[in-house]
Write the C-alpha cells for this entry.
Amino acid sequence: MTNTTTPQTDTAKQGPAPTTLLYTVIGGSLLTVVSVFLAWTWTAEYPGDLTYYGSPAPIQTLSLIAALLTTAYALSALGLKGFRWLSPTGSRKALWILALGTLVGTWYTVLSITWVLGGVINLEPGAYVALVGSAIPVLAANKLPDDTHKAAPAKRLPSWAEILIITGVFALGLYVVTFGIDTNDKEPQLFVTYLLIVGFAAFALLKSGLLDRFSTITANNRQVTLMGTAAAAIAFPFIQQSGDTYTLIAVNILIFATVALGLNVVVGLAGLLDLGYVAFLGVGAYTAALVSGSTASAFDIRLPFWAAMIVGALASLIFGVVIGAPTLRLRGDYLAIVTLGFGEIFRIAMGNLDGTSGPDITNGPNGIPNIPHLEIFGWNFGESHDVGGITLGAYANYYFLMLLVMALVILVFARAGNSRIGRAWVAIREDETAAEAMGINGFKVKLIAFALGATLAGLAGTVQAHVNSTVVPENYVFAGPVPPNSAFLLAAVILGGMGTIRGPILGAALLFLIPAKLAFLQDYQLLAFGIALILLMRFRPEGLIANKRAQLEYHDETAGQAPTDLATAKAGA
C-alpha cells in the first residue's frame, strides 16, 4: 500500500517549528514588559503602590527583569549575534526555567493583590495583561526541543576583558544582595517575589552553563576575584540609605555564616554529626561577656578586645577537647545524641549559675547585660563615624570587624581542608574503618576537627556578645525561632553544601534573612525548612553549591560506577 502522507501532514503532526515557538516566547515576554508600565490595582493600600502608569513599582520591576531575561535567552536560542554567549550548553532548559520564574513571580504578585485587598475586583487591566503575558512563554518554551550539549572550549579573553567581566558581575551581585536585604519589612510580598525571581534566574544561569563559564574566568584571575569579593563586601555599608537597620542584619548573617563554617569542619570535612554545636558559640560569648567589663559580670575584669577574643576562643577550645575526648569514640547516631545532650547541659548550666541553684557567675536566666561596646585604638564601635563624607552607623564597625573574622576563618578552613589533616578528615568521613586500616589515627583526627570547630565558633561568639550587648541562655538552644541555633546551623551547612566554603555562607545568609524578612511565617518556620530540606535531598543532595569531589562521587554512584575510595589514599596522614 502506497504511503500518501504529505510533508505538510508530517509537519502538522510535529507541531509548530522551534522558530515560531521562540517568537511566541518573545511576544509573551514583551507583553509582560508592557504590563509592568500599567496599573495592577486601583488602590494604594497594597504594599508598594501599584497604581501608577508608566512608573513600575519595585515588585513590578522584578517581573520586568525576569521578562527581559527570558527575551534575551529566546534571542540566544534564535542564534542572534551578541546573545549566543548566554547559553554555552544550550538555551532550552534555561529559557523554560526563566519563563516559569516570570510566571511564578508575576502570578504570585497578582494573587497576593487579590488576597490582601479582598478579591479580583481590585485588579486593574495591567494585572490581567501580566497574567496572560507571563503564561504564554511557559507554554511555548515547554514545547521546544532539548538542545543541551557539551560546552565548547571557550577562547581566553584578554586580561582587561576578563577583569571587566568580573567587576561587572560583582557589582551586579552586590546590587542584587543589597536589594534583597533592603526590602521593606512591611512589604513581605516584595521579598517573596524577589526570592522567587532570583532563585529561578540563578537556576537558569546554572543550566545554561554561564555560571561555569564565569567560574573559569575567575579561576584564571584568582587575585582579581579575591580583591573584587573584598571590595564588594566592604562597599555594602556605604550604599545603605536606611541607617543601621539592615547593616545589623548583615552583621548577624556574618556571625551566623562564620559559625556555620566552623561546623562545616566538623560535619562537612570530618563527617561528625554535632547537634550541640551552638554551645561553643555560647562559651565564647559568655567568656567575652565575663572579661569585657560588663557591670553584671561576676569578675571585675576588663581585658582589651584582642585578649577577650583569645580567651573566648581558648575557652571554646578547652570545652571542645573536654567534650570530644570521651565522646568521639562513638559514631553516628550515638555521637549525635551525646552532642545534643552537651548543648542542652550548657544551656541549663548557664541558667543555673545564678547564686541560688549554683555559684553566682552568669546571672542565671537574666544573662549578662550591659556588655560595653568595643574600643580599638581609640575607635569606639558604639558610635557613628564619617568615612569619606559618608556617615557609617555603629553596626558598620562590627560589620567590618566580622569581615576580618570571617576572612580569618575562611583562611583556616581552606588551609586545613587542603592539608594532610584535612585529607585525613575526608578519609574518616568516607570510611572510618578503612581509614584506620590504612594507618590514620581516627580518634586523634576527629578530636582535632572537634577542637578546631569549637575554636572558630568561640571566636565568633566573642564578637556576638558585643554586638548584642547581652548574652542569655535562651540564645543557645537546639532549635528555636531565632537563629543561630544548632538546628539552623546544621541546616545551613547541608543547604549550602557540605565541605565547601561558599556553601555554608550562602546557606546561613538564606536561613537568617528569610525569617527576618518573613516574620509573619514565624510559626511555620520549622515546617517550611523541613519541607525545603526534603526537596533539597530529593533534587540536589549535594547542596546548593556542591563540593566538586563529592558531586563526582555522587554521579558515579548514580551511574552504577564504583566511587573512588578516598581512604585508600591514606590521606597523607
Remarks:
- The chain is about 65% helix and 0% strand.
- The first strand starts at residue 375 and ends at 376.
